[in-house]
């Protein structure tokens, strides 16, 4: 199974680390997209 994770701010990266670790432990692939907005 593939999972698409879309994150933006630094706090989301910290939370995503836990989620990503659990996905890998279960043999799932994750695609991580970092949304960056510069004005």
TrEMBL record:
It comes from Kosmotoga olearia (strain ATCC BAA-1733 / DSM 21960 / TBF 19.5.1). This is UDP-N-acetylglucosamine 2-epimerase WbpI.
């Amino acid at each position: 199974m593939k999972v698409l994770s879309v994150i933006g701010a630094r706090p989301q990266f910290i939370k995503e680390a836990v989620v990503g670790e659990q996905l890998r432990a279960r043999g799932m692939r994750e695609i991580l997209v970092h949304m960056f907005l510069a004005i």
